[in-house]
Amino acid sequence: MKKFSKFKHEAGVDEAGRGSLAGPVTAAAVILGKNFKGKNLDDSKKLSQSKRLELKKFIEKNALAYSVAFVSTYQIDKNNILNSTFEAMHKSIEGLSIEPDFILVDGNLFKPYRDLKYKCIIKGDQKYQNIAAASILAKTYRDEYMSNLHIKFPEYNWIQNKGYGTKFHIDMITKLGRTKYHRKSFQIKSNQQILQFN
């Protein structure tokens, strides 16, 4: 894995929680130095929880700059998930202690941020270190957020499913209804089952 551009401060950006039925959408932006060595960095979904947490500490210690941002369920319902994802990405970029001169985004959609040049890369978290690092931070910070919410609402088992639409989670929504952390704008069918854990 390497940088995409020749720019000095290229920021990798990724999100977590876009397809979840509950909780925020979370984005991270990471700027790595040219001598950064992170041989175990990869798409966060391919890594074990313990490996993600280990790499989270490594990234936070060794990155030139990083930032994580959340956009709430309320905002998702108000502005839709796509716009909320862009908002989370923009907030994460804005939160960087170093202003980037280029943005590398995982996926195929991005709303321009100020006048910065950018590039969308499908499966970018498997190809570029800064996107992989952003993927890991977005995932670990959101997982922690959902694990804390689980303490208040253990019946939905968010500590395990992180708000995604597993059969158990959907069954509990059908039985108990939705909390204020559930996305009201997301349609849930009784036979729907989403097995992705972003």
Brief synopsis:
The chain is an alpha/beta fold. The protein is built from six helices and five strands.
CATH homologous superfamily name?
Answer: Ribonuclease H-like superfamily/Ribonuclease H
Regarding quaternary structure, what we see is single chain
SSE string, helices as H and strands as E? EEHEHHEEHHH
Low-confidence stretches: 191-198
Helix and strand content put the structural class at: alpha/beta
Strand adjacency order, main sheet: 3-2-1-4-5
Portion in beta strands: 15-25%
- CATH fold topology: Nucleotidyltransferase, domain 5
Q: How many strands, which pairing sense, and closed or not: the largest β-sheet? A: 5 strands, mixed
Question: Could you give the distance between the termini?
Answer: 21 Å
Contiguous helical run count: 6
Name its key features.
6 helices, disordered C terminus, 198 residues, five-stranded mixed beta sheet, Nucleotidyltransferase, domain 5
